[in-house]
Amino acid sequence: MSKQESGAIAREIQTQILVLGGLAALMWITEFIDIFFFRGRLDAFGIRPHSFIGLRGIFLAPFLHGGLGHLIANTIPFLTLGWLVMLRETSDFFVVSIITMFVSGLGVWLTGSPYSIHVGASGVIFGYFGFLLLRGYFERSFAAILFSLVVGFLYGGMIWGVLPIQYGISWQGHLFGFIGGAIAARLLAKPKKRY
After folding, report:
1. What is the C-alpha separation between 68 and 81, in angstroms, rounded?
2. Residues 142-165, mean pLDDT to the nearest whole number
């Protein structure tokens, strides 16, 4: 590996750390501001299903959390799955994040209980999971399939989160986030080269 190539890899890793670390820091700063200055009232900016004003939550909800426990539970999978999305190309992370935010948020807005408020990054996290799991199916390359199998082995238990089995958890956000990840996997799939 040449010095130029190793320098490019080092810059890419630095960019990935800055992007993921910056977004995670933004979530933590927002939560601390919400706890200490607003006493949880910022959560009102989350997704409010069937309400026109609730549409603003589609892109705000992932940065809001229902307390430190909720934030801690989302931070580690956000960092790990987000980094796995970035592994091939950092730009994939931005595309997958935007698609899953939109699909997850809109799905919650359309199907959630009318008087509920949905917050948290879990819809986006399930989007990363769906993207990583289904990228191998859409690309059909050995490396992509192997990567999908490894992700399925390590994180396969997450799939139960798309079902309405736990009260107070936005399974709609998880389900539509996963669907958004699948859409992103299809859109970003690199066609197999034919010789």
Report:
1. 20
2. 91
Its pTM stands at 0.94
Alpha carbon distance 110, 96 (integer Å)? 21
Structure tokens at 32: 């601390």
Q: Is residue 160 part of a domain?
A: yes
pLDDT at position 141, please? Answer: 87
Instruction: Give me the pLDDT at residue 123, please.
Output: 97
Name the 3-class secondary structure at 56: helix
CATH number of the domain where residue 118 is located: 1.20.1540.10
Q: Is residue 169 part of a domain?
A: yes
Picking from 70, 79, 169, 91, the residue whose alpha carbon sits closest to that of residue 128 is: 79
Q: Which helix (H) or strand (E) holds 95?
A: helix 90-111
**How many whole angstroms separate alpha carbon 111 and alpha carbon 26?**
28
Distance, in Å, from the CA atom of 8 to the CA atom of 14, rounded to the nearest integer, reads 10
Nearest-angstrom CA–CA distance, 78 and 93: 11
Whether 160 shows a pLDDT value over 60: the answer reads yes
